[in-house]
């Protein structure tokens, strides 16, 4: 799991399922572990990550979280109670 995390901090559904089969763990536990690790690496480097892997992982996590924050801000400004932006409410930004 650690090696998979160093390669990808935001796996898709298929990757979670493959990893779950490989390590013999239910998908919901993997999702929780990945979320915990993303939280953890923002504070300090795990001993099993190299400095380079850590730098890339933290940059990826921060980038994805900033995209999510922008998406939430955009969705809020496009809410149905804002008549000038109502048609944009269904705007979806892939994360």
Describe the structure.
Keywords: DNA-binding, Homeobox, Nucleus. Residues 3-45 bind DNA. There is one protein chain. The radius of gyration is 17 Å and the shape is flat. The longest helix has 27 residues, at 51-77. The protein is built from 4 helices and no strands. It has helices at residues 2-7, 13-23, 27-41, 51-77. It has a domain at 2-65: Orthogonal Bundle (Arc Repressor Mutant, subunit A), CATH 1.10.10.
What's the SSE blueprint?
Blueprint lengths: L1 H6 L5 H11 L3 H15 L9 H27 L18
Sum this structure up briefly.
The chain has 4 helices and no strands.
Shape: flat
- Strand content is under 5%
The number of distinct helices, counting runs of at least 4 residues, comes to 4
Order of helices and strands: HHHH
CATH architecture of the domain at 2-65: Orthogonal Bundle
Helix content: 55-70%
Keywords:
nucleus, DNA binding, 4 helices, DNA-binding, homeobox, Arc Repressor Mutant, subunit A, 95 residues, mainly alpha, Homeobox domain-containing protein
């Amino acid at each position: 799991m650690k090696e998979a995390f160093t390669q990808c901090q935001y796996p898709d559904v298929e990757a979670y399922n493959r990893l779950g089969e490989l390590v013999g763990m239910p998908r919901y536990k993997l999702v929780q572990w990945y979320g915990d690790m993303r939280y953890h690496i923002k504070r300090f480097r795990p001993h099993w990550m190299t400095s380079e892997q850590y730098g890339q992982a933290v940059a990826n996590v921060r980038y994805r979280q900033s995209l999510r924050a922008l998406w939430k801000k955009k969705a809020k400004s496009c809410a149905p109670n804002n008549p000038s932006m109502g048609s944009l409410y269904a705007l979806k930004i892939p994360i």
